[in-house]
Backbone:
């Protein structure tokens, strides 16, 4: 991975739950970190293959490895904000299991991540 390819500064957020004043569960998105990534819209065969696994996948996002991406339970509670766009993370793949690069499979759409 070349550092120059990571040209988009994004905000990584995690969904957290707290207890509201009346005892109800309240879910909020909390900033984890700002990270540099490359965002690539999937096209053609890539899109068809990705959607066979996750029906609404629209993008592949490349980032440096972070421990946040190592546990599937944590990945399911993460999203990426780029400008006014919200990317729900579907999966994070540790490239060659070398803890250097992560390919993130994400969907951009109507929900809030």
Residues:
């Amino acid at each position: 991975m070349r550092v120059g390819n990571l040209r988009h500064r994004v905000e990584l957020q995690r969904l957290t739950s707290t207890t509201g004043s009346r005892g109800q569960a309240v879910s909020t998105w909390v900033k984890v970190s700002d990270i540099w990534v490359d965002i690539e819209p999937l096209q053609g065969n890539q899109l068809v293959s990705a959607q066979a696994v996750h029906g609404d996948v629209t993008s592949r996002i490349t980032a440096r490895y972070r421990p946040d991406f190592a546990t599937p339970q944590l990945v399911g509670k993460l999203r990426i904000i780029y400008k006014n766009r919200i990317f729900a993370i579907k999966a994070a793949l540790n490239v060659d299991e070398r803890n250097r690069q992560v390919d993130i499979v994400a969907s951009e759409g109507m929900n809030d991540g």
